[in-house]
Amino acid sequence: MTIFLILLAGALAGIQNALAGGGSFITLPALILAGLNPLEANITSTVALFPGQVTTGLANRQLVSGTSQLSFRILFMLSVIGGGLGALLLLYTPATVFARLVPWLVLFATLVFAWGNFVRKPASSNAAHLGGGATALIQFCIAIYGGYFGGGIGFLMMAALSLAGMPTRGAAATKNVLASVMNASAVLLFAFSAAVRWKEAAVLGVSAIAGGLIGAKMLSHFRAVSNPKCNRAA
User: Fold this and answer.
1) Of the given ranges (53-57, 131-135, 187-191), which has the lowest mean pLDDT?
2) Which of 4, 44, 52, 174 has the fewest Cβ atoms within 10 angstroms?
């Protein structure tokens, strides 16, 4: 039953991460229910979801780009450095302290989720966009948070990239790649940590890859449906 729970959580998280983000909303409680403490669950979730994030990012790589004022290379580097810093901070956080922080981190992530889905309005093409410096700072802060906890990073990046003037589908594909990049730094550090539960990570990772591929196809389908040329060709 525990294995089935983890498999289901991984598949749903992979789809969720591909489309918008927030897969850890599903995997973190599933791993805690499976018997892991919050610190182990958070680190194991990050390691397990990483391959699926890479797969999803590669599947929609043709949509990836930088903003009008900030190149993708800079966004990439900010995500690598920030993700590593957040992971180091997490590794030096005692498990008991992190357990007390989790409710507040989940509350913050939930508010981000609610804002991204029910409050935020799509940026108008005529609206003022974030400058390159502001976008860089926001992305760096998101990357640190992503390496430390990660809940809601997809929604945060979608909001930041959209406010920087990026189209929705391009922002969705770009945030998938940036999420995998910031988690790559974290995974390199977490791989040497005793907090990783490798059995659970393997089960979760396999199902997350499958879910990520499904989500990537769904994202491409949404792109085709919303593209008039694709509709005419169909």
Assistant:
1) 53-57
2) 4
